[in-house]
Amino acid sequence: MLIDDRDLNSGRDAARPNSASRSRAKQSAASAAPAAVIPPAVVASPALPAEPGELATMHRDVTSWFSGIARDLPWRSADCSAWGILVSEVMLQQTPVVRVLPVWQDWMERWPTPADLASEAPGEAVRHWGRLGYPRRALRLHAAAVAIRDEHNGEVPADFDHLLGLPGVGSYTAAAVAAFAFGQRTTVVDTNIRRVHARLISGLALPSQSLAAAEMRLADSLLPQDQELSVRWNAAVMELGALVCTARAPKCQECPVRPSCAWLAAGEPPPTYTPKGQAWHGTDRQVRGAVMAVLRSASSPVIREAFGTSPADLGFAPDGVAIPLAALHRLNPAPEQLERALDGLLADGLAEEHDGGLRLPA
DNA sequence: CATGCGTGGAG
DNA sequence: TCTCCAAGCAT
Predict the structure, then answer these.
(1) Which nucleotides of C are covered by protein (CB under 7 A)?
(2) Which of A192, A195, A199 has the alpha carbon at shortest distance from A242?
(3) Which residue is closest, via its CA, to the C1' of B11?
């Protein structure tokens, strides 16, 4: 069920019958008994804590928990530049922290400022993106570096709208950079925060399939008024979703706001829809990925024939290209699919023609 | 607004 | 093995 205006403004009491006892539950113990089970249909309406004090309590509980458990990530370091934070946010789009860490370190040593990256060929950004996935992000990060150099005097803009204007920066990333790099009070909404709100406030197992406007308004209404606290709240709720309120098998025993969770109170109702998994085997994406692995490791243009024919001697250094070429040949895509993949990569600017072959954009 | 876009670890 | 999914964005 989607959140709409009507739901936002009504049904508070019905949705949160334990509202009056929540503050007490906080003070007594983390092991307070869960509230009585409420029919999912009733709880499915989002309800803000009725009293301002309850909201403040929630802020305190989550941020205090965050202080004790927050991961020591390099882009959270006090001396991390806005550029470093922007790079981390783009790398973290749809990619787990553990895989981002080494690549982010490499990028920061290689290109400590936007101007450093901007002076490189875009293909170098793609090459050093490694296997993070969605290599278009590397291309856009390079384009963002150029825009920062040329249009923002080399400094990452602090303004939300200016950030939003950068390639590869959408509403989430713009809000996150404004908050985490510049300490601004912005409404950050990512998949973790959406899931926490869905459970804690709306009593749903999962957020809706598309981000609705009412969801942003809900996040707005939950955001602490105090600027510094709002930054901490954004980071804390995100961390809560990443470490405790996870998509699968949430660790509710470790949750700092367990006593006031609408989803737990409702008896953990299952999702009302089943997310359709992304197809992978046999898709163009799989072929594109295999082609990109070849281009990243190749130091000179690769002729089109090399992608589709047997892995005979094609004149490449065996150590560099043998493995990715082998992977592509193992896939053995139909000629038309291979062409479609190559043309798509060309259209996306991830590859370019040169000397009768394909290479990363120079 | 639904779809396409990579990758590899966990359950 | 196989399915799910991880700090989204652009079209």
Answers:
(1) 3-10
(2) A192
(3) A248
- CATH number assigned to the domain covering A5-72+187-265: 1.10.1670.10
Distances from the Cα of A201 to the Cαs of A59, A191, A198, A261, in angstroms? 13, 15, 6, 7
Mean pLDDT per 10-residue section of chain A, whose length is 362 residues: 31 31 32 34 52 91 97 97 98 98 98 98 98 98 98 98 98 98 98 98 94 94 98 98 97 97 96 88 96 94 84 48 78 94 98 96 98
Which residue places its CA closest to the C1' of nucleotide C8? A93
Give the 3-state secondary structure percentages of chain A, helix then strand then coil, rounded to 5: 55, 0, 40
User: Which of A222, A170, A165 has the alpha carbon at shortest distance from A194?
Assistant: A222
Question: Is A89 annotated as catalytic?
Answer: yes
The segment(s) of chain A belonging to CATH 1.10.1670.10 are 5-72+187-265
Q: Measure A250 CA to B10 C1' (Å).
A: 14
Which amino acid, one-letter code, is at A211?
A: L
Question: What's the CA–C1' distance between A99 and B6, in Å?
Answer: 13
The yes or no reply on domain A82-180 and CATH 2.40.50.1070 is: no
